[in-house]
Every structure is written in structure tokens, then in C-alpha cells.
Amino acid sequence: MLSSRLLQVRSAPVLAVRALSLGTTVLQGKAPDMAEGNSHLLVTNVRNRLRETVGASTNWRDHQQAMAERASLSSQLAPSQESLPVRRMKDSYIEVHLPLGTQPELREKYLTYHNSVRFGRILEDLDSLAVLICYSHTKNEALQRSPLSIVTALVDKIDMRKHIIYPDCDIKFTGHVTWVGKTSIEAKMHMSQFHDGAYSPVLDATFVMVARDPENKRAAFVNPLKPEGPEEEKLFQEGEANKKRRVELSTASLLKVAPIAEERKIIHSLFLNTLDSKTVSFRSRVLPPNSVWMEDAKMKGLEICHPQERNIFNRIFGGFLMRKAYELGWANACAYGGCRPNLVAVDDILFQKPVEIGSLLLLSSQVCYTQGSYIQVRVHTEVLDPLTRQHNTTNVFHFTFSSPEEVPAILPRSYGESMLYLDGKRHFDLTMSGQ
């Protein structure tokens, strides 16, 4: 529960707001000329800017027709990356404001019943901003509409630098492209909040987007990126390292290869600690004190995917999926720990398939690893075709929470649960190594 002090309305001074409107304040030590790329705007206008970029409509029926007409834009796609002009990082720089302090009417959408900020809404805003940043990088002034369909492929990492997000203080998002491949783009974003007379950092986020043709069927080339100066070169090299790390993690996935020797020892030790000493049987398992079987730490949900939650490409908005997954994961961690948890990090959110409008979306949350007061939660989403009864995985989410108190140890019983346990431990260890 936030103290009464935090619930008092604290608006940013008018002079500070005016200074921001002139683009004079840049977050995270960015050079002032980084703001040359794009002027900042309000969060509420980001989606409108995206619709203008691709020619989407706010009306459901018109939207379908507009998307069908996008097929004619295929002729405007570049035949190769070399035929596209080189971009700078400053070309895609964007600053976006969420004035929770200076425009109180915006708060209701972002508030929880505890008068804290709904982090799921922040995830939605980050997703929209990442797409807009990538469109700024690929913008062609000669074209009225972009022929590219830019969609979220992966949320590589979101690191929380501060657990408290005040419900009545202005928020600022900044970001720009930091790395590109042939058809993929990495965008880094930072969120800060105005409090006690200054903006202080709240989180850092790294998203990976992919460019596809107007019908979102095949890959499309994006503009190359040229770093300027040692700081930008460092960011670009970090993007290269991130790509290499993702490839290595995919290769070492427990769905593809066996656990390493150290991990096998961990699982066998857990097994031995849960054997019934009286029966000395492989089948007889006993739950140790202050522990919970993994099968008893689940929470599930269902969403009917209505047109209201569509993105500019007539699929379900990725930010909406992240919000729903986060809220289910948070609820699971809350129920497991018996108190309100804080988010520590989000990592490796993989968007495997788009979710079509009209789908039945099944969400399954599982506490898969614990250590001290930390809770690692995995949320798996899949769509169900009610006619064929086929299930297809669309997303996998990984969240790390911290609880005010030490939580019970989570224990697997089956081999499949043991693999979930090890996968959760890998994500937790990776998160903690970056703290």
C-alpha cells in the first residue's frame, strides 16, 4: 500500500513541462542532438501516428479494406538492403510523454485498485513505441504509406531500475534503434518519471522487431544503420552480442538438448530430498516443509480476442498479449508468495505466431523456480481453434518477481516439470547476472 504522501497529486512545474516540449531534456545521457530525429509526442497519439504510417483505419470494416489494399504496396519494397539509404541512430530517436501528473484524467486507465500504476499498461506503451521507432528508422519521405509491416518478434529484456512507479507523476519514454540486421531491428527504450523536481530512471527495455511485406507474409529489407562515435558503436556491438546470445540460448534449449551435468545433479538432488524414507520407493514422494509442488502453483486464464484489441495489421496487439500475460503472472506470484510482489525483470518474450481476431486465447501461468524471496514465473499462451480443437503456441513469457518475504520452495515431480524448473533457473540466473 502506498503511503498517503505518494497519493497526493504532484504535478510537474509548468516551466519543466515547457522545457520538455522544446526537446531540451534527453534521458540516459543522450547527446542533445539526438533529438533531431523526431519531436516527442504523447502516448495517446502513438497509435494514431502508426495508423497514419501504414494507412490503417480506426473503423473495423474500413480497417479490413485498408489492409487488403496494402497488398499493392509490395512493388515499393527494396530489392536489397544495399539499395536503401543508411540511417543514423538519431534519425529514429523519439521522446514520448505520459502526463499522469499534469493530466489527471489519464490516470484511471493506468491505476490499480491499490493506487499504483498498472505495469501491463506500460508494456503496451513500450510495444507501440518500439514499432514507431522502427518505422522512423525505415521512413521514406517519398512514400505516402510505408510498405513494411513491422511486428514484434521478441522482448529481449526489460530491467526495472526502480520498483515504485508513482501514479500521479509524469512519465517520459525515450528510445531509438541501436542495431539492425538484414530484416530485423533492435530498439532500446528508457522510461523515467518526474519526481522531486527531476526525472529519474525507472526501466530499460530492449525489443527486437522484424520487417515483413505489406501482407505480413515474408521478410523485407530494412535500412542499414551507421553508428556515429564510440557510444553508438558500443550500442551496436551490444546488439550483435545480443543476437549471438539468443542463438546460443536457442541452441542450448532444453527442448532440443539434455541438461548439462550440473543441472542433472540439481534435479537428482531434488528427487532424493523428496523421497519417503520409510518406504524407500521411487514412486513414494514426500513434500518437505515450506515447499510447494509445482503442479499446485498454476493459474490459468482465457481471452476471447475481439476486434477492439487489434493492432494496425488486423491481428491482436502484442502489447495486449503482454499485459494479459503479465497480469496473470503477477497474480500467480502474488497468490504463491501471499503478498504483493514487485517486478524485477522481463526477459525473452518470444512471439512465435500472430494471434488472429476471433481466437480463443488460453493463458497458463506456472511458478517454475524460486530462490529466497524471488519467484520466477513462466506464462505460456496458445490459441484454440474451437472447430478443429487444435492448440498452437503463440507466446512464451518469463517474469522475475521479488516478494517482501521469503517464499516457499517450488519442487517438480515429473521429468517435464524438472525441465521447467531448470529453464526457470536459467532465466533467473541470467536476470540476476545483469543486476
TrEMBL record:
PROSITE patterns noted in UniProt: HOTDOG_ACOT
InterPro entries for the chain: HOTDOG_ACOT, HotDog_dom_sf
PANTHER family xref list: ACYL-COA THIOESTERASE (PTHR12655), ACYL-COENZYME A THIOESTERASE 9, MITOCHONDRIAL (PTHR12655:SF0)
Record-level GO BP terms: acyl-CoA metabolic process
Protein's UniProt name: HotDog ACOT-type domain-containing protein
Family: Belongs to the acyl coenzyme A hydrolase family.
GO cellular component: mitochondrion
Subcellular location: Mitochondrion
Species whose genome carries this gene: Albula goreensis
Domain HotDog ACOT-type: 92-215, 295-407
MF GO annotations: carboxylic ester hydrolase activity; fatty acyl-CoA hydrolase activity
Keywords, in A-Z order: Hydrolase, Mitochondrion, Repeat, Serine esterase, Transit peptide
Signal peptide (UniProt feature, chain positions): none
